[in-house]
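Per-record layout

source: Oryzias sinensis
name: C-type lectin domain-containing protein
length: 334
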Amino acid sequence: IVQKQIFVFLSGPGCVMTNLLLQYHFINESKSWDQARRYCKNNKHSDLATVSSMADMNRLRQHLGNRSAWIGLHREASDIRMWQWSQPDVQFNEIQKKEWDNNEPNDVITENCGTLRCNKKWADLSCKSKQPFICYNETNSSYVIYANEERNWTDAQSFCRDRHTDLISGPEQMKKLNGVSKNELFPKSQDGFIFIGLFRDAWQWSDGSSFSFRFWNLQYDDEIKDKNRTWEEALYYCRHHHHDLVTITNMDEQRWVQEKTKNASSPFVWTGLRYTCSLGFWFWVSDEVVRYKNWASPEQVNECDMSGAMETGGEHKWFKKHDEEKFNFFCSTS
């Protein structure tokens, strides 16, 4: 099943590096992401749109309204995650790796956001963890420490972008914190974490731009649907009313979803996990790679018309279920 929607492409002289030259054009035709990109190339435009800053994002919003459209951001199948800074004009390089604390970064799957520790060294942490954070004001080269306000990394980034410039990014900006005391950074604990603008992901812009700008809408529909549906009915419902059936790619997401399933009225809830009989493997309909697994048993293959469901009780393990069975389901909105 291929999701199709309208798209926005970029017109300009190749890989445009300044916003003054960017020209966005909206095409009100439903196409898959690959089809939309081919359309852009075949019609002598640069590529699908690259979004390099909040200024670009606001321009797109003005034209889109409540509609959705493809842009040039895509995820490589190799899933190689590169560390980047939230401020798109600040580059991460090899020299900066000396700023990591001992044995950091120490997680290769779930800890994809950067923090500052009390020794002013960096450590990786789950982006869904709620921590204090530091914003930066580009206009007067100043910072604001929100030591008593805890948010997940994405919420902290949005907060900083709304009220300041962005999360503090790069060694040059963080040099300003050298004279800041531990008590000012960590009034609640002397051994805590505070979010900075460091993150990693496997997403890339289709035109080859190195912009690190991201503006994800990371939310889920908190209502567990009490109406039982087949897997396909659940998929269409989520894609029509929200975004997709839920995807679970790490332990944090697993725990979050299983907490929400306490309100379910069926023994299982459908997820976006699907088995392809012809190719012989499981995949997420959101195109995420199935790396994290929580199967009840390893014998989850060799049957057609099967999809993945999570048990709402017990250990919340995953089970293969025939598509025509009817369960509650869980939608994501991003």
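summary: The mean pLDDT is 81. The longest strand covers residues 142-151.
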